[in-house]
């Protein structure tokens, strides 16, 4: 009891202290990286932005997180983050920046929370360095600058961590319940990804809490039950509601939230089976559009024969059609090949791994001399927590079949925590010991500098030789000088140690700024000189890295007159999903890839959105003029074509197959009934995204009147060429 009272008294005393002045510039750096120029992103991730537009229109849409104003289908994630985004848009008005703002603030909040978590046990300098490392981890600001979920997810899990640490210090059961309930809230942000921290929570509570085993088991069992109840609360309400009274649960095959959570957003991420058509086939490693983008994009003005270009793309695509996570040196969505060293491969290492060698040396130092049976110090207990967070998550990303680069933000807190704690611990060992522990600091500096040279080497054409050589040379020199001066404890040695930390953070800081310098991608956020492409890997040899990005998407009804646009991706033999590649939360699995505009764009607003960020005004005018009271402005195969029109008009647009175009939502009989009721009569079909709705598409074509393109098709020179070619507008009226 005395110990508990002293802890509480110490906390109250520390809260009365002045603001840490060293923390101020760190927070300002985090704010700059997360907030600067977010007002230029007009659409953000258009798939999610369209949902916010829809959720603003009614509580029904708000509660279910409906993608469209008509309440036809939901987005592919649970609603909590989008509730927050909708509230932000309600307060500040509907803008790209207003839906990004909550995630940007969450990114800043994560930096502050990590400082608070580390300062109490490891000291103020550990807290400062951990906070700075978190702010400068490239993928952290890259994700925080978008309306994707992960920044808010990490903030919520760090908040749960703060509650857990408080529960251990105060030995109060209420804080245990609060911590696990917060994980339940995080589950309603991104489902099973929130549970990745559970090993750390269980291990830490068991090791660190000074209560009987009986109480530990009882408390953890009750807290886990509460977590599960909070986790499935929204899912149970939705799944218990009659299907005709709510939107279809997007990206599920059975119109079920629980199936979505444990399938598409759960186990399938590990196995790599991201098929949404019920097929057992796994997705290909790359889409044709990805291959084309890395080999032939930015050559739209080339006079090369279009058929030859098509054959080149198909040949390259067939060569790289391998199992998820493999198939080429950069793997699926540039996430490398599964294996123990995956986090050191291209595409992932430059997002998260800059300090990993230093972290490994820090772990060795922090656990040096620890006995399995204890007793453990407070530092060792919390180090065990961060290790139990780091290892399972690192193992998952090392073997998972399907994920995106920005998911790696889950590794940022433990890496930053060990960087902060390790910097202080290794420095102390360097100054106080003459045994092997004193070599950990120079060893960590040397190996980390070597890894950073390796990470930067593929980008020599973009960033030049100087920074690569500089980091390598300075890292080697500082490590050697520190090794030589081990016995000299003076101010020069202190400056050398500080200089080494600056060198190790210099290039991560630059990488963290690349979404601002080169432009970011709101659908597939990543950092690096080609950050606008959303694929984060080394720059293509066929394009200037400062302008890299996927060819712009073609809005419904636009035409650029390039005959090669009708080339379509060929599915692998035996596949039932038309070779469609799924990119959760931002792109259709009809292989329509991100529409990222260069930061050099003449437009004052960046309409990246990862989808069609353009609206064909002529088509919109035609549909509006000829609408005779139909509920839906028009219907299309998937969310890619629908999102920009929902954002611009706020009117219902039906994505018949949901996000990917493959959700089994519609049947021919159901569509007939909708047409007879006067709910929809216009259909824009682009020839892709059919998936599981091929019967519906066939029926539409056989029973409709084709609208002449001259009435609605734009010929604007600003139209960007997409992989699906020119679509067709159909009209159906049934008596």
Report the structural category: mainly alpha
CA gyration radius, whole angstroms: 26 Å
- Low-pLDDT segments: 1-5, 276-328, 540-554, 557-603, 717-725
Q: Given the C-alpha coordinates, what overall shape results?
A: globular
| Beta strand count | 5
Count of helical stretches: 27
Cα(first) to Cα(last) distance is 79 Å
Strand content: under 5%
Helicity level: 40-55%
Largest sheet: 5 strands, mixed
List the helices and strands and how they pair.
Layout: H1 2-15, H2 23-35, H3 46-55, H4 59-64, H5 80-92, H6 96-122, H7 124-136, H8 139-144, H9 150-170, H10 173-190, H11 198-208, H12 213-240, H13 257-271, H14 288-295, H15 306-320, H16 349-352, H17 356-366, H18 378-399, H19 412-432, H20 440-456, H21 460-463, H22 465-484, H23 491-517, H24 617-625, E1 635-636, H25 639-649, E2 654-655, H26 668-676, E3 682-685, H27 694-702, E4 705-706, E5 728-731
Parallel strand pairs: 1-2, 1-3
Antiparallel strand pairs: 3-5, 4-5
Structural features, described:
With 735 residues, this protein is mainly alpha-helical. Helices cover 52% and strands 2% of the residues. The protein is built from 27 helices and five strands. It has helices at residues 2-15, 23-35, 46-55, 59-64, 80-92, 96-122, 124-136, 139-144, 150-170, 173-190, 198-208, 213-240, 257-271, 288-295, 306-320, 349-352, 356-366, 378-399, 412-432, 440-456, 460-463, 465-484, 491-517, 617-625, 639-649, 668-676, 694-702, and strands at residues 635-636, 654-655, 682-685, 705-706, 728-731. The protein has a five-stranded mixed sheet with strand order 2-1-3-5-4, with helices on both faces. β1 (635-636), α25 and β2 form a beta-alpha-beta unit. The termini are far apart. Mean pLDDT is 82; it is low at 1-5, 276-328, 540-554, 557-603 and 717-725.
